[in-house]
Specification:
Rossmann fold; 32 strands; alpha/beta; single chain; five-stranded parallel sheet; GMP Synthetase, Chain A, domain 3; 613 residues
């Protein structure tokens, strides 16, 4: 029996029925026997059907820059083979077991080119500070001496909660020289968040912003955590806390490297993951980690050694190390840092022209906000390359930016546990909506639940081969939690927990987290595809798609939507959204439940927490 809308028809063998597939329909076997239905899709108009068309490769339209022929310091640690378009075919590391970024890159640049700009910093009150590599060398050495004088030693864990304060870079590099392990964290943490992190990481010292109530929350948490011995405050004073700004400057600007200095496989940096479910895990990286960001900056961000790069990310997120220090300074490019509290498009957009920012990276959350503004009134002509990561980018946002600015936003994929694993690299073609192809430093495959490689077009888990050893840039494990490490690191692969499918041209397409996939009436539905369709509607600011339990179908698609200012929610609008999805993707994917909300639950790094929708 076939039901189309309200009409029901019983078909015998050989019978057929013609109907509009956009109308809700279904089929069941009757008469006590199984049967086979054959569905044939007709296209009487002759118009192209997007779902049946192969995605077209687009040649990168980044604004050309001259090939860099100058001898660079990174060449002492990296060998690269490029094709004729400048796309890397292979990246091999050398001297990595003795590598220390603070000594080998920052201090080396300070010696060779002391007046070269390292960072242009803009405080919230618009105070400009320009720091050269000599400034970074001297200040980081002062910090290393300061921390050492306090009694902080190699292997001690030091939490940095410093927003985008310029002192973050001083402290981070100082810890890198000393060998104490830096653990950046966001200033949005509450008391219970600090308690969990202090205990999990065995934190011995915290260097914290004086802004807001962050220090109060950290102080309250420290009262119940015996490991915390030193509380150091930045940009202010607080009773019971040491003053970073007053004290570090009293120390020598020289901190010499010795045979005992940290390098290679020593632990350097740890990040609490912003997982969309469960408690954060503490991903540990060694001193080879910055090398793994070489391609992130040179071949994805495409930074200019004579330019200025902006990545919008708080230093509490791993994304800050993707775009605010390691790879950029390896490539000898300066970074632009604006220490704002709340993102304001009208505040930031004029800065591109004023400071001649040449490359720009921001998470899709920020880009979606920008896309809803009239960016055509701002001069973005200095920007040569634009990238995004953190979550999948909706194709509609890509198209809007390209139409207005001519810039093609190139996606990349990675985690707190990795550097950029998959991306659209310089010189290579790309496809709208695809996160690109694996970076040369990683061997990547899509595996099913049995560990077998899935064929083209099928969804599998993104996995990184570690059978021959972990590549530079991949984490060493979850600190203090070998059991959880074994859950994701086994059988010669690191299992990312993210899923994708691969097309016939080798491009990867993001689907979602393993536990985000919606299973409805036997179909496996990725939330991102539906979110992308809904985001095409001009009155939708943000959208999160999740599974809702259903007695008949197991799960159904639920869309939680934030509307742009001035749009009122209504039942008619819900129906319009549902109809739009039905007409722009397979009808079984449409959201049977639509809810409107003021905001979506997110992790501290801005990712939508679909398990809370």
């Amino acid at each position: 029996m076939v039901q189309v809308g309200h009409h029901k028809e019983t078909l015998d063998p050989g019978d057929s029925i013609y109907y509009d597939s956009a109308t809700p329909h279904g089929m069941i076997a009757v008469g006590g026997e199984d049967c086979i239905f054959y569905a044939i899709v007709l296209n009487p108009t002759g118009e192209p059907i997007p779902e049946l068309m192969a995605d077209q490769e687009i040649q990168s339209a980044g604004k050309d820059s001259e090939k860099d022929t100058r001898e660079r310091i990174w060449q002492q640690f990296v060998d690269v083979e490029e094709d004729r378009n400048g796309t890397p075919l292979s990246i091999r590391f050398k001297n990595e077991n003795s590598f220390n970024f603070a000594f080998d890159i920052v201090d080396a640049l300070a010696e060779r080119d002391p007046e070269k700009l390292a960072m242009l910093h803009l405080s919230e009150d618009k105070t400009e500070r320009r720091f050269t590599f000599r400034d970074m060398k001297r200040a980081s050495s002062q910090c290393a001496n300061y921390f050492k004088a306090l009694g902080i030693r190699k292997g001690d864990r030091v939490m940095l909660v410093l927003k985008r304060h310029y002192q973050f870079w001083f402290a981070m590099l100082g810890l890198n020289k000393l060998g104490a392990i830096a653990i950046p964290a966001t200033n949005q943490l509450q008391t219970h968040d600090f308690e969990y992190r202090f205990r999990t990481g065995g934190i011995r010292a915290i260097v914290c912003t004086a802004d807001g109530d962050t220090a109060l929350h950290a102080e309250t948490a420290a009262e119940s955590c015996d490991s915390v011995e030193f509380k150091i405050i930045v940009n202010g004073k607080r009773e019971g806390w040491r003053s970073f700004d007053e004290e570090y400057t009293m120390y020598s600007t020289t901190f010499k490297r010795t045979e005992e200095s940290p390098c290679g496989h020593d632990l350097m940096l740890m990040y609490f993951t912003s997982g969309t479910s469960g408690y954060p895990k503490l991903a540990a990286h060694d001193y080879r980690y910055p090398l793994g960001h070489f391609h992130t900056a040179k071949y994805w961000h495409t930074v200019d050694p004579d330019g200025l790069h902006l990545t919008i990310a708080d230093t509490g997120w791993a994304k800050a190390m993707w775009g605010k220090m390691y790879g950029q300074w390896m490539c000898e490019a300066a970074t632009f840092v604006y220490d704002f509290d709340r993102f304001n498009a009208e505040d930031i957009l004029p800065m591109f022209s004023k400071y001649q920012i040449t490359s720009f990276c921001a998470p899709p959350t920020i880009l979606r906000m920008l896309a809803k503004k009239d960016i055509s009134q701002y001069d973005l002509s200095s920007v040569k390359h634009m990238t995004t990561a953190g979550e999948a980018l909706n194709p509609e946002v890509y198209r809007q930016f390209e139409k207005i600015t001519g810039l093609q936003i190139l996606e990349g994929f990675g985690q707190s546990e990795t550097t950029m694993v998959i991306g659209n690299l310089v010189g290579a073609s790309h496809k709208i909506g695809s996160m690109g192809k694996p970076a040369p430093i990683y061997t990547v495959d899509l595996l099913d639940e049995n560990g077998a490689s899935v064929p083209v077009g099928e969804t599998g888990e993104i996995c990184i081969r570690v059978a021959d050893g972990a590549p530079c840039g991949l984490f060493t494990g979850y600190y203090g939690n070998p059991a959880v490490t074994r859950e994701v690191w086994h059988d010669g692969w690191y299992h990312t927990g993210d899923t994708a499918w691969r097309d016939e041209d080798g491009f990867y397409w993001y689907v979602g987290r393993v536990d985000d996939v919606i299973k409805s009436s036997g179909y496996r539905i990725g939330p991102f595809e539906i979110e992308s369709v809904i985001m095409e509607l001009p009155y939708v600011l943000e959208c999160g798609v999740s599974a809702a339990p259903d007695e008949v179908r197991g799960q159904v698609v639920k869309a939680s939507i934030v509307l742009v200012e001035g749009t009122d929610p209504s039942e008619e609008l819900k129906k319009e959204i549902q109809d739009y999805v039905k007409s722009h993707t397979a009808p079984y994917k449409y959201p049977r439940i639509v809810t409107f909300c003021d905001s979506l639950p997110k992790t501290t790094s801005g990712k939508i927490r679909r398990n809370m929708l």
